[in-house]
Structures are given as structure tokens and as C-alpha cells.
Amino acid sequence: MSTEKLLGEDLVALQNEKGNICVSVIVPAHRLSPERRTDVTEVKKAIEKAGQLLQYKYGEKEVEPLVQTMHGLYKTIDFTHNLDGIGLYVSPHFKLSVKFPFPVEEKVMAGDSFEIRDLLYKINYSIPYYVLVLTEKHIRLFEGSWDELAEIKDKNFPVDYKDDFEYAKPVHSAHYAGYSQVKGFEKDKSELETIRFRDFFREVDKLLDNYLVNDTPLLLTGVERELSLFGGITGHARKIAGKITRSFNYSHEKELADIAWPAMYQYFKNEREKLVKEFAEKIGEGLAVTGIQDIWSAAQEGRALKLLVEKDYRCPGFLTGEGYRLHLFPPESPHKVLPDAVDALIVAVLEKSGHVFFVDNGTLKDYDRIALITRY
Fold this sequence. Notes:
This protein is of the alpha+beta class.
């Protein structure tokens, strides 16, 4: 696919830079002209802010290479194909530019770790999916990530239906027989066509085995009859994320993507709701923790399995001693300040092979906006 994907190894590399000077520059962007013309200027301004922040916090010798790297990344940005946000991540040993297909707030930060909240959110919803466009004559398969689709064109897809069956037309046995035999023939022909279409769809369904691995979701599009026929024979029913009743015989790829992504986004949100229900069930089993302080302790102990966080939940914090206990107010003893304890918690969970899932604001209002399913 042409769409940029943030791979898991990129996230690992970001985390491995902890302790070095890490610069995170995140800027809102615009998809349409003329609004996107301002993005060039805004990114330049953000890089200047980052340079000033670096000069304030560090020495000139450390700052200059980082600023040069940011300007180098800036030159690689294709502003003619913007999404909703742009991110630049720079450290002495790492550089990355990312486009975000969702709204972001401007952030210019320099410290001993990267600001990864928006990156994680992108990864959360970057689960690959497929869209199968069904017609009785021609079937196409598309691979999707966020709101972009790319058609699969290989030895399997697209697939054309070949109608090479010979029908023997009836002959009137007598003039008074009328058209009863013709009508019977037409009925038999229609039934035979339905059988052959089912067989055709079975062949296509078998081809999908090569793509639908590891529970990859599948979205179906087509008219009602085609959706019904395919739904009756598929062995991938459990992976079907949704159905769109519409003909896409002549639709442009972008039009298909504009209709497919909202359906897939809703599917991913529904999956998050299932996680919230799972959390509620784990309460009775003693495998659920709420409140950022208790969750912090569980994460330090290595018990964090699935962390659920509302997208915009942030909370300052303070650490004392070895950092196993999180304070929400400055303690009298010597302490370290965490501008956002939620981000620090997310990193801690990931470092110990836990998983992080973002949910919509308000989803966890009964659990202090953050919830954890523990390993034990």
C-alpha cells in the first residue's frame, strides 16, 4: 500500500531512545487546499520552537545536529497529500516522520523520552483489513489501513466469473403446450445459475484463506443477493466486520475507501467496547485494577496485560525513591516530576510486554478514565 505505516519496530526504536535527548514535534494539518498551504509555515514555526526549547535546555553542541535532522525531515514531507496531522521525532540515533489520519493537538517537546500518545493511537487503529467487492461477474479484493485502500492484483485477485455452461433450449411438443415448457426452462436455468454462482463464491472464499490470517477482519460490499449468497457459503463468517449493501461496479477507489472506513472504524470501536465489558467481567475475578496510582503499581510489578485509556486522559504525577509509587500531589520528600503520568504509564506497560488500547472519552467514566486487566 502507498499509505505510510508505523511498524512495531519503529515503536520499539522510539522506546529504546529513552534517556537520550528526544524531540517530538506534532502539528495539525489539513487535507484540502487552500487550508493545507498554511501547513508548510506551521511546521516551520514548530521546528523553530523546538530549536529554541533545545537551546534553553541543552548545550549548543548537542542541539545543532538535532535541529539539522529536523530540517532534513521537513524537506521530505509531501505537503500536497496531507492528512490531519504531521509528526517529527528526532534523537541522536533516531529520526521518523509520520502523518496522522486523525486530528491532533500541536505539541513541541524535548526531554529524555518521546511523546508517543498519537503514535500509539495510530497503531491502535492501523489494524489491516480487507474489503471484498462482490458482483456475480467480477470480484475485487482491497487491502485497507485507516482510510486508504489498495487493490490486490496478484495471481488470485481480481477474479472473473466465466459463464461457459451450455443450456439446451426446450422444443414445443405440441402447439397447444403454449409457453409452459419455456417458463419451466427459465426457472431451471435460474436455479442452475444460482448454484453456479454459489460454486464461484466458494472458490473465491477459498482464495481468501491466503489473506485472512490472524483474525484479519473482512468487510463485504455488494447488492443484497450477492451478500446473501456469499454469506451462506463462506467459511470466514467469524471474520466479517460488516456489510455494505451497494454496488461498486464503477466506483472510484477513493469513493469505496470513503464508505468502507467509517464502517471499519465503527467495528474497531465495537471491539474496544468488548474490552471494556471484558474488564467489567474481570473485576469479579480479581484481575481488574482502576485508578492511575494502583495501575502504576501493578505495571511496575509486571502484572499489566491490557491497559485501557481514554484518548485524551492526562494527569501529572510525582515519583519518589525507586519510582514504584506514584503520587498525584508533590510529596515533601525528594521526587521526580512527571508532566503526564499517563504517558509514562503507557511506556511502562509496553516495556513489560503489555498491550495498550485507546477508547473514546467518557467510555471509562465509571473507572476514573483508565482501567487495567492484569495477568494475575
